[in-house]
């Protein structure tokens, strides 16, 4: 940990791509001469990652920003400049506005149901319980299955007449064949499948965080006369704060880009009632070749994520660490 | 402990077990339905969805005897392994420089990669497609491998950089005294020392690649390149009426992932909790 602290003092005299310049920053490396110069080392080591990243991550996003200002079918160069028309069109489009609304519903459901359930299970598995390693293994297993596999499995589980859902549905007084076909239930059905796959991840994050809290803290509270609930509410829960806030963050970002699960389960239907931003973007971009318009939807997804991330980082995560995303504590 | 305390303890642990079993059932029953369902025909599926198959129908053998499944499995493996090698290799080099060199623009670059962590992949897919088409990489495994590696860089760099920073400067000084240059130190000292961290990021990269759907979906129109997720989805479309057969296909496509999980559970969970937690 000694190196990083030297950044600020070396920064002034240090020119990154200038090997021989013996500024104050390079002084400590002098022992390495006549090895390849510092600049060469930096360039060689950074080149592969930077090339990949700039070419395949940064450039596409810039292209999307540019294309979103054009009416473009994706072939040739975009020529028909339309300014912000694609954006105004999007915000007037009921499907797009519905996507935003459904995203909000999914986030709220996740915060109200999935995360608390995951937290409760994590606390439960933190108890001394025979076989808890086995339970943990099972609870987390769906996370390694792909969204596609999960979605196909659940399509079949709820398939009319043949599925497992038939019995469950009859018991609930519903019709299994229609959970994904009924506009009133489809979004909740999608949410349940998403939760089935992802609650184990959140449980695992909470469990790891819980195990990082010294036992003495809640024990001391109990000794001082707190009930188990009070000890949880006033000691454990605040200490889990950073992990809870990160989980909320992951859940929101994940919802903004939700695609595979919805695409396979419902394709966004019936009549758009389970469509997400990513599905709408895919429909326009890859099915109707309205690449300009689809790029505008991409940009909205990007800006939503970025604004949310910056806002969240600034307002909510600030007190946790200097940047919970960039600054990982030693968890190993 | 008094007798009542013991009894209270027992009741409590019984209740906890019951909750765990109930939740476990929610996870296991759908999968079990799939596993058994793969041995049934559609008549059995509707009359007897959870019971033992009678007679056992060789759906699994049919699929395993057909080259398509193996081809998709092979494609998934090829793409996952190549993406992982590329992302871990290039990220390790960058993380080394970020962790152990102070230079102008370093914080900017680190932040750039960190922001990449929250680029939704779906945002880039459309321009990426146009770009790959321009480079002639459609229907070419590199068209999936390279973008996957690129999108895996942020998380990989962040985890590795953190690990590299924990290796004391004395180790490097000793290596330099023994005549190691930067490359020698990186290759012969740092990487071997970082084996646990490399295992973690590799496992994360493999799982991410294995489960990727959107990119292979748009890049491969040629079926012979399809990966398992694309194949499963297409199989479902093709045999929509033959539920039992699709179940068998789904279950077979789950097995490698579950097997991998059984082997690499520790690295996977360590990586996820370590990288996400502040």
Automatic annotation (TrEMBL), chain A:
Q: Where, by residue number, does the polypeptide cross the bilayer?
A: 39-67, 104-125, 137-158, 186-208, 248-271, 291-312
Coiled coil, from the record = none
The record's listing under InterPro entries reads: ABC_transporter_permease (IPR051393), MetI-like (IPR000515), MetI-like_sf (IPR035906)
SUPFAM superfamilies per UniProt: MetI-like
| Cellular localization per UniProt | Cell membrane
Residue span(s) of domain ABC transmembrane type-1: 100-312
Which residue stretches belong to region Disordered? 1-36
Q: How does it sit in the membrane?
A: Multi-pass membrane protein
UniProt signal peptide: none
Keyword list (alphabetical) reads: Cell membrane, Membrane, Transmembrane, Transmembrane helix, Transport
CDD domains, per database record: TM_PBP2
Its family remark reads: Belongs to the binding-protein-dependent transport system permease family.
The record's annotation in PANTHER family points to: ABC TRANSPORTER PERMEASE PROTEIN, INNER MEMBRANE ABC TRANSPORTER PERMEASE PROTEIN YCJO
**Protein name per the record:** Sugar ABC transporter permease
Organism this protein belongs to: Micromonospora parastrephiae
Automatic annotation (TrEMBL), chain B:
Q: Does the keyword Transmembrane apply?
A: yes
Q: Which InterPro entries does this UniProt record tie to the protein?
A: MetI-like, MetI-like_sf
The compartments listed are: Cell membrane
For the ABC transmembrane type-1 domain, which residue ranges apply?
Answer: 73-264
TM stretches of this protein: 14-35, 77-101, 108-130, 142-160, 197-220, 246-264
The protein's UniProt keywords, in alphabetical order, are:
Cell membrane, Membrane, Transmembrane, Transmembrane helix, Transport
- PROSITE patterns attached here? ABC_TM1 (PS50928)
What is the membrane topology noted in the UniProt record heading this document? Multi-pass membrane protein
Q: Which family does it belong to?
A: Belongs to the binding-protein-dependent transport system permease family.
Q: What is this protein called?
A: Carbohydrate ABC transporter permease
């Amino acid at each position: 940990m000694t190196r990083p602290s030297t950044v600020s003092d070396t920064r002034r005299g240090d020119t990154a791509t200038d090997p021989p310049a013996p500024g104050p920053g390079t002084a400590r490396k002098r022992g390495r001469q006549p090895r390849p110069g510092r600049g060469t080392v930096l360039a060689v080591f950074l080149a592969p990652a930077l090339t990949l990243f700039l070419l395949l991550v940064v450039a596409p996003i810039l292209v999307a920003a540019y294309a979103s200002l054009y009416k473009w079918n994706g072939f040739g160069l975009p020529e028909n400049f339309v300014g912000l028309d694609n954006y105004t069109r999007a915000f007037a489009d009921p499907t797009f506005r519905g996507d935003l609304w459904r995203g909000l519903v999914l986030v709220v459901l996740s915060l109200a149901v999935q995360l608390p359930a995951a937290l409760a299970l994590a606390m439960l598995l933190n108890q001394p319980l025979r076989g808890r390693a086995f339970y943990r293994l099972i609870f987390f297993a769906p996370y390694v299955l792909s969204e596609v596999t999960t979605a196909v499995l659940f399509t079949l589980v709820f398939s009319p007449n043949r599925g497992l859902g038939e019995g469950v549905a009859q018991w609930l007084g519903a019709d299994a064949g229609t959970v994904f076909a009924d506009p009133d239930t489809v979004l909740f059905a999608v949410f349940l499948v998403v939760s089935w796959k992802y609650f184990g991840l959140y449980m695992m994050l909470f469990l790891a965080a819980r195990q990082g809290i010294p036992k003495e803290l809640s024990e001391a509270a109990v000794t001082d006369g707190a009930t188990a609930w009070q000890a949880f509410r006033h000691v454990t829960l605040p200490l889990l704060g950073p992990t809870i806030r990160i989980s909320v963050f992951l859940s929101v970002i994940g919802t903004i880009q939700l695609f595979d699960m919805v695409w396979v389960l419902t394709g966004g239907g019936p009549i758009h009632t389970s469509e997400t931003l990513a599905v709408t973007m895919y429909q326009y971009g890859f099915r109707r070749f309205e690449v300009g318009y689809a790029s505008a939807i991409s940009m909205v997804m990007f800006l939503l994520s970025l604004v949310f991330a910056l806002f969240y980082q600034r307002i909510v995560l600030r007190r946790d660490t200097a940047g919970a995303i960039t600054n990982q504590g030693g968890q190993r | 402990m008094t007798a009542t305390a013991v009894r209270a303890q027992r009741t409590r642990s019984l209740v906890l077990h019951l909750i765990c079993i109930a939740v476990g059932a929610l996870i296991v029953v759908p999968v079990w339905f799939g596993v058994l369902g793969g041995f049934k025909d559609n008549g059995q599926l509707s009359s007897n969805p959870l019971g033992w198959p009678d007679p056992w129908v060789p759906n699994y053998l049919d699929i395993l005897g057909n080259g398509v499944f193996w081809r998709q499995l092979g494609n998934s493996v090829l793409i996952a392994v190549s993406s992982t090698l590329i992302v871990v290799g290039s990220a390790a080099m960058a993380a080394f420089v970020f962790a152990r060199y102070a230079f102008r623009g370093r914080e900017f670059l680190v932040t750039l990669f960190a922001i990449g962590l929250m680029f939704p992949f779906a945002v880039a897919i459309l321009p990426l497609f146009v770009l790959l088409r321009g480079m002639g990489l459609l229907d070419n495994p590199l068209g999936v491998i390279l973008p996957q590696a690129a999108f895996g860089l942020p998380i990989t760099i962040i985890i590795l950089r953190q690990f590299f920073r924990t290796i004391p400067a004395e180790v490097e000084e000793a290596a330099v005294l023994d005549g190691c240059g930067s490359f020698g130190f990186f290759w012969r000292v740092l990487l071997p020392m970082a084996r646990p961290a490399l295992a973690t990021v590799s496992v994360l990269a493999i799982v991410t690649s294995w489960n990727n759907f959107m990119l292979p979906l748009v890049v491969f129109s040629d079926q012979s390149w399809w990966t398992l997720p694309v194949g499963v989805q297409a199989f479902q479309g093709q045999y929509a009426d033959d539920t039992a057969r699709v179940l068998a296909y789904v279950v077979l496509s789950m097995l490698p992932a579950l097997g991998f999980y059984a082997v690499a559970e520790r690295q996977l969970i360590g990586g996820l909790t370590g990288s996400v937690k502040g």
